[in-house]
Amino acid sequence: MHSKELFSEYEANVRSYSRSFPEIFTKAKGAKMYDENGKEYIDFFAGAGALNYGHNNDYIKEKVIDYIQSDGIMHSLDMMTAPKAEFIEFFEKKVLEPRGLDYKIMFAGPTGTNAVESLLKLARKVKKREMIWAYMGCFHGMTLGSISLTSDAASRAGAGVGLDNVYHIPAPYMFPELDTIKFMQTLLDDDHSGVEKPAAIFIETVQADGGVNVFSVEYLKALREFCDKNDILMVVDDVQVGCARTGTFFSFERAGIKPDMFSLSKSIGGYPFPMGLAMFKPEYDLWKPGEHSGTFRGIQLSMVAAKAGLEFMLDNNIEAETRRKGEIVREYLEKNIDGDPNVIATRGIGLLWGVEVKDDATAGAITARAFKKGLVIERAGRDNAVIKIMPPLIISDEDLIAGLDILKAAIDGE
Questions:
Q1: Where is 166: in which H helix or E strand?
Q2: Alpha-carbon distance 402 to 248, whole Å?
Q3: The domain boundary residue, chosen from 298, 315, 332
Q4: Are both 219 and 351 inside the same structural domain?
Q5: Where is the domain boundary, 315, 340, 369?
Q6: pLDDT cut 70: percent of the chain above it
C-alpha cells in the first residue's frame, strides 16, 4: 500500500483530479477502474475523453506489444517511418476519404493544446490577420495561445500575462433572443464596432468543459455560411468531442459541414498514447519546414495505437453503438433525473451528457457521494455546476445503467 500523504507532500498544488477522486488506483479494464484496496469503480470520466475505446483495450494492446517486441523505432521526430506511413494511409483511406474529406495531416505534438496552438499560428499566417474569435463557454487548452481562446476565468488567471488578439462571441444558448450570426456580421460591417475582423473563428461543436452545450445543426451550418461569406476560416476543436464521442467520428459531421481546419487529440492516440493532429485543407498548407516543431511529435507507439484504434472503431461499429447508448442515457435522464428538485437541466449528445444543478457545492456533494459508491464522474461548466457523464464508448449497457443508478442515488442524497 502507498501513502496518500506522499502526493500532498511532494506533488505540486496544481494537481486537481486526485482531489476529486482521493484514492490510489492500480488497475483499469474496459469501463472500470480499481484502487489499491481492490474496490471497483465504473468510469464515467474516460480520461477526460482520452479513453473512448476503454482502459487497456485488448485489440490495441496486442498491436502495441507486438510492435515493442519487434524492436521497431520508438522515437523519430518527424522522420519517415513505417508506423507513420501505415497510420496516414489508413486514416486517409478509411476515415477521411469515405467522408469526402480532403485534409493535410500535421503531427503537431503530443497534446491537444499543441494542435490548437499550431492552428492558431497557421490561421494567422494564412489570412495575415492577428484577431481570432472564439465563443464564451469554450475551452481550448492551457498553453498561452490556447488560454487566450479559452473563456473560463480560472484558466485565464493562470497565464500571468495579457491575453490579446482574441474576441469572445456570446454562445447562442446564452441569449436565445440574440441572433449571434447577425451580431457577428454587425461587428464586421459597423465601422464603430471597435472589433477587428478575425483570421478565424474557433468553435467546439459541443462545449464539453463549458457545461455540455450542444451547438445545433442549424447554427453550425449558418456559421459555415458566415465564414465563407466573410473570408474567415472556420476552425473546429475536436480534441475532446471527436473520435466518435458524439456519435460520428468527427463531431461536425452531423451538420454536413467541412471546417477549414480542425484539431484532434486525446482518443486519436488509441490506447491512449499522446498524439495531437492539426488538420487543414491542402490550400492552407503554407508552413515552411520546421516552422512549427516539437521533439515528441514522432512517438511511434502513438502511431501504432492510433491506427489500431481506428481499426477497432470501424470493426466494432463504435459510431452507431455510441448513438444507441446515447439514447439509453437520454431515456434514463428523462425518466429518472429530469424534474428532480436538485436538477436544473439535462442535455447532451452521443455519450456526452450533462446534469446541471444549482451550484458548485451541490455538484461537488453529488460527485463525492457518487465516488464513494463506486462511480468516477467529474464536474464542468460555469461554477462547476454541471455533472458530466462521459464513459468510454465501449461501456456495456449493464455498466452504463449501473453507473446512472449510482448517479441518481447520489443526486437523491443517498
A1: strand 166-169
A2: 25
A3: 315
A4: no
A5: 315
A6: 100
Q: What number of helices (H) and strands (E) belong to the chain?
A: 14, 17
Residue 156 inside a domain? The answer is yes
Cβ count within 10 A of residue 21: 19
Average pLDDT for residues 226-233, to the nearest whole number?
98
Distance of alpha carbon 115 from alpha carbon 99, whole angstroms: 22
Q: Is residue 3 part of a domain?
A: no
The answer to whether the bond into 272 is cis (omega within 30° of 0) is yes
- pTM score of the predicted model: 0.96
CA nearest to 56, candidates 30, 17, 18 = 30
3-state helix, strand, coil in the chain (%, to 5): 40, 20, 40
Cα dihedral across residues 360, 365, 366, 367: positive or negative = positive
Q: Do 240 and 66 touch, CB atoms closer than 8 A?
A: no
Looking at the fold, whether 236 and 382 belong to one and the same domain comes out as no
Strands 352-357 and 386-389: antiparallel
* pLDDT tens, residue by residue, 293-350: 999 988 999 999 999 999 999 999 999 999 999 999 999 999 999 999 999 999 999 9
**Does residue 44 belong to any structural domain of this protein?**
no
Cell numbers linked to 332 = 434514463
For residue 106, what are the domain limits?
A: 61-315
Cα–Cα dist 140/149, whole Å: 6
Predicted pLDDT at 1:
82
- 88 and 199 in a single domain? The answer is yes
List, in sequence order, every residue forming a beta bridge with 349; answer none if it has no partner: 352
Tens digits of per-residue pLDDT, 175-215?
A: 999 999 999 999 999 999 999 999 999 999 999 999 999 99
**Is 207 found in the same domain as 331?**
no
Q: Are residues 379 and 330 in the same domain?
A: yes
Give the residue-averaged pLDDT of 145-161. Answer: 94
pLDDT at 398: 98
